[in-house]
Amino acid sequence: MKIFDSLRQKKALLTQSPAARKALLATVMTLFATLILTVAGFFNQQSVTAQQFVNLQEGEIPHAGFRRAHAKGICIAGKFESNGALASYSTATFFNKGSTPFLGRFSTAGNNPTAPDLKAPVRSLAFILLGDKNQEWRVAMNTPPVMAVATPEAFFAQLQALSPDPVTKKPDPARISAFFVAHPESQAFNDWKASYAPTNSFATERYHSINAFYLVDDDGNKRAVRWVAVPQLSKVDIPPLAKDSPDALQNQLQDLLVEDTVRFSLIFTLADDTDDENNPTIPWPSERKKINAGTLSINRWEAQATGQCAQKNFDPLVLPDGIEATADPILRARSAAYAESYRRRAREILLDLSASAE
Questions:
Q1: 23 in the Ramachandran plot: left (φ > 0), alpha (ψ -120 to 50) or beta?
Q2: What percent of the residues of the chain are helix, what percent strand, and what percent coil, each to the nearest 5?
Q3: Of 69, 178, 184, 193, which residue is the least packed, with the fewest Cβ within 10 Å?
């Protein structure tokens, strides 16, 4: 991971000689090949590969150097202030009472890094917490509380159904309708979609983990959880959007952070024995126990082009001791697709740096 983060710092080396450039390129690509084969191993026994997922996401004309999904975003940073309420449920040090710095990213759905903010159907919040003893927690959350489908194969079919028709260049409503008729497990997602109205700010959305994870305590006991970032700002606290701007949400966030800190409560829902932690299409009942683990406080931003978040991979399977993945196949599909997108972006950036050094 650190190699990717420092690619732009390698430009001086790339200018030394053609041999040095080739050696560096070969070394880095070998590491990335190893990474993707390891992380995407889940797909070896499946009919859909991580490469096929990313091919579909990037479309006919990939935007080189950018994520294949949620390509447009803004970097953020701040701290997670734990109140200690989850410390008895998990050995993860992030849940001990205290403060941990984080870097993260708000983003909008789609593969176009210049698309208008307000046209995106989904918004996302991702962040990385770095703790002591090489402990790291990477989190990727979205506005939907559930997935439409429960398997990688069905998710791939969903992406195909939503893809623009090659002739009209627009989604085909009949194909989309046929897909959801064939997948009744999508009911909860479609109910959410029908009732969802985007808020007027990144700072007032609710962001969900969607997939479940296990908290592991000192005795090795596991408890399945999902979580949601709940905004502490209300809609009335937010100034009007400049709706004619393609960067309306980003510009508004910048203005907000000049005046104040943007805060979210991190609320965990604990499953009981009747809940299926491996199926992300099923909402858990509202009466399940909830614990407020603390506050995610955002106090600064950076442009994606130059910010620290730009080349971070927010892989949800990078977990610290005390948090473990469930057997949810969609969770593993997400991780493998993230790794494949990461590999492609890294290669494109490195090749661009190499060309510019010629």
A1: alpha
A2: 35, 20, 40
A3: 184
